[in-house]
Structures are given as structure tokens and as C-alpha cells.
Amino acid sequence: MNAIALNSAIVDILAKKQELNALDYNDARYDDIEEELHDLEDDFNEEFGDLLEDALEDVHGKIKSDADILLPTAYLASSLDGKELEEGEESEGVWVESDSFPGVEMRLVLVANPPRILLVLSDQERVLWTAE
User: Fold this and answer.
1) Which of 115, 129, 130, 13 is nearest to 62 (CA)?
2) Which residues neighbour 61 within 8 Å (Cβ) at sequence distance 6 or greater?
3) Coiled-coil segments, which residues (predicted)?
4) Which of 46, 55, 126, 132 could be joined to 119 by an S-S link, Cβ 3.0–4.6 Å?
5) Residue 55's pLDDT is what?
6) CB neighbours of 18 closer than 8 A, spacing ≥ 6?
7) What is the pLDDT of residues 34-77, one digit of tens each?
8) Residue 18's domain spans which residues?
9) Main-chain dihedrals φ then ψ at residue 17, nearest 5 degrees
């Protein structure tokens, strides 16, 4: 996997998400920016989907989760700065259940710089995979 290309693609999507989130729905540019975001996400899933799905399968195995594996873009963070992760935003990543952590609320989140998959618990983060 080309970690540099993966990181660049993640950064591009997160930057576009931030650009879209800064706009009001009534803004004339909203639909165009939203379409650009969807195009970036489609390209991302096409280019990196198979490799990331394999990584997510390994991650699910590590935490003993039988949750369905979604498209990699579902796991993406909402911003580049990680502010939402620090504040425990519920919109980050994908909620999973784990036999390793019964009854604990947790999410898997794909972040950039470097590209990695985090297990986010209420009070901590664990890196479960890093692109090489």
C-alpha cells in the first residue's frame, strides 16, 4: 500500500468535509462541494477499498468483533485536527461491539497523518493498524 497516497486521499476528503461543513445549506456552492466530496469518497473506495477492507477485517479480528465491515469511507474522521475525537463526538467512525470489551461503547476511526485505524473508547484511543 502506498501510505503517502492513502494519507493524501484521506486529507483531501477531510478538507472537503470541513469546507462543506462551513457552508450553510442555502449557500449556492453547497451542492457543488457536496458532489466533489462524494466523488472523492467514490475514488477513495475504488482505489483503497480492497486494501482497507483487509485491514479492517484484521482489526475486527483483533478486537473480536463480528460487526459488519462497511466501506472504508464510513470509518473516516470528520476533521483533520482530531478535535471531534478528543471531544468524544459520536459522529466519528463506526460503532462496533467487541467480545474483548463487553458492554463498552467503542468506535473504529480512520485518521490521517499517518493513516491509521484507531479504536476509540470513552477515555482512550488505541492504534490498531497503521499504513506502511
Assistant:
1) 129
2) none
3) 23-50
4) 126
5) 97
6) 79, 80
7) 999 999 999 999 999 999 999 999 999 999 998 999 999 999 99
8) 3-130
9) -60, -45
